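Forwarding these from the shared drive since the link keeps breaking.
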Amino acid sequence: MTITASLVKDLRTATGAGMMDCKKALTETDGDLDAAIDWLRKKGLSAAAKKASRVASEGLVGVSSTGTVGTLIEVNSETDFVARNEDFQGFVKTLAGLAASADDIEALGGMDYPSTGRSVNEELTHNIATIGENMSLRRMDKLSVSEGAVITYVHNAVTDGLGKIGVLVALESTASSDALTALGKQLAMHVAAAAPASLSADDLDPEMMARERQILVDQAIQSGKPADIAEKMVEGRMKKFMKEVVLLEQTFVIDGETEVRKVIENAARDAGAPITMTGFARFNLGEGIEKEESDFAAEVAAQLGN
């Protein structure tokens, strides 16, 4: 029997399963819709979409580096229990490696997942059905250098390359790999702790700067200072703000006194070659996701079927 797009759509509507899973179910059951629904239920796939409305703010951040290319990915789940699941960990680690060949998270979702015959998105759906929680491929970032290294770091790693805060640091240089790795690890640890908003002042978001300036202007006006004094107050506070959020101008958290820009200059001198930090990326698991307040006891009871 010919499997039409309309039949696939009907099955997706009835089960919420992925398009490729629906097509396979209809193929396996010779186009019998009811039998295809049963086929999907037996595979656990019809339940996946029902979980899609549930908030997924836990999970893992994964990092990977091939030397001059580094990747960072966040895959979310509903609970922290899943982050300790070896299958889920393997999935995130595999995606961190695949991301080196993807331009963005959408492209990553369409790539072939190794040894399954499924795409990454289809493997995600399969995992939702198998593990029993909603999951999502939230975001990815990728940095590269023509010469040098992209260094990775995971804060409080649950296993190699996986944790809740992941960082990439890109260093352009002809310095030795050992020198770049040592510097990159320290810079990445700083980024994890200090959460800078940009690499340099030129990279700062203009809207963020305008918002901060307006807050400072309002504070100066409310203080009752003369206009000329108020303007000087604002300028001084803006410089202080930039030193707090611009990576190269921040105070290095490891020694508490040296400007990050100077730390890189000192490392370049010791390495005998120029070192330029061309970028960084930092993911903190679940940041920006509105989490639902829940009754933990009720959740456990629900999972036990009570």
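-- next protein --
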Amino acid sequence: MVDATTAGEMGSPRQSSSDRIVRDIKQGMYEGRFVAGQRLAEPDLMRLYEVGRSTVREALQRLAAEGVVTVTAHRGAQVRHLSRAEARDLLQLLEVTIGLAARLAALRIREPGMREQFIKAYEGLAAFAGREDSYDLVRARNRFYHAMNRVGGNGLLGTLIDGFNVHLIRTYLRRPSQERFADYRAMADAILAGDGGRAEIVARRHLRNVMTALDEAPDSIFAPGAPTQPQTT
């Protein structure tokens, strides 16, 4: 599963109306126009995007399939709201997969054409250092991780990472820019040096830093956790 942003940049000739809705809702989550737990009423979306009900339903079905929204009987669709435990579970999986992706990229970086495409993606991300967060930064960060995966050569790994819906955490859990870009630089330096072990270590450290930020975040930004099941003896 490729993020709609990345798919559009990979040569899709034009976006359908449902493509446009999917992309705008994801962008709106980052910009605060759509927030975790917000109800997405079909009539409201029809007016907002000036499309018919079938187009809105197609977009919502796609977002539901990606895990971005949830659809329940009698309540319709709403932006998915992660509990703290769900966010931590997601980050634990990302720590392993991003670490492996960085290791594989470092091991293949000297193959023809690999260094050039990775450097291009990293420079595109590094250009946002010291600037305010924006959706353009999100797109540059997506390109950086996709370049890492392409260089690493494991297509299944890239599909797994895309399916983790990292944007669900990024929308309301952001670390200081200086710290994030120090992590990106450390990953890029290790990959470009061809040091697979170090690349995996620094990539996993980046995700652990995000987990630390998650642990320090207030309860109010998370959905209530599932009730504890009673112990039986």
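Residues 1-12, 227-233 have pLDDT under 50 and may be disordered. The CA atoms of residues 53 and 213 lie 40 Å apart.

- D.
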